[in-house]
Specification:
This protein is α/β, with parallel strands linked by helices and 163 residues long. Helix content is 39%, strand content 12%. The protein has a 5-stranded parallel sheet, sandwiched between helices. Residues 158-163 have low confidence and may be disordered.
């Protein structure tokens, strides 16, 4: 199981930076534990995703599960059994130069574009917890092969109905 992980998943798993639904937090914890105990985290070879994680997570691997995930990546970055690296060309500002040039994605968060590009190039889905940008742009991302797994659920799209 290969997955790209948006930073918000680790933040929610840690339970810091806000109040989160307990089921949402549990889903994030379980997803990160699955990745650290046999899954493969997909990230860019230029370490831009690690830089993003570093802004919110502790490299000691404690006290939260998100911190442990970050430590796991640092410890196993060179081991393809744990981490699959994808080459992503980035601009000087650290944003993906390979992100799809699609008018419907013009407003997509710059800081999430490397993660999206990693998913697009690797075929791995992106794990998301609470970042609405992934939901807002879900259809446009999907047209470019970027699949998003919503760990905390996603509200139904306009015009759809629950069955």
């Amino acid at each position: 199981m290969k997955k790209a992980v948006d930073t918000n998943v680790a933040i929610v798993a840690n339970g810091r930076h806000g109040e989160y639904d307990p089921n949402c937090r549990l889903a994030c914890i379980e997803a990160l534990r699955a990745l650290t105990s046999g899954g493969i985290a997909v990230m860019d070879s230029g370490r831009y995703m690690l830089s993003e994680y570093r802004r919110y997570l502790h490299p000691r691997g404690q006290p939260g599960v998100g911190d442990y995930f970050y430590r796991h990546l640092l410890d196993h970055a060179a081991n393809p059994k744990h981490v699959h690296k994808v080459d992503v060309a980035c601009n000087l500002d650290g944003h993906s130069a390979e992100f799809p040039d699609d008018p419907e994605l013009a407003g997509f968060d710059l800081s999430d574009r490397v993660c999206a590009t990693v998913a697009m190039k690797s075929g791995a889905p992106v794990l998301n917890a609470v970042d609405s940008d992934w939901l807002i742009h879900q259809d446009a991302l999907a047209r470019h092969g970027i699949v998003v797994e919503f760990l905390c659920g996603a509200p139904p799209k306009k015009g759809s109905r629950k069955e």
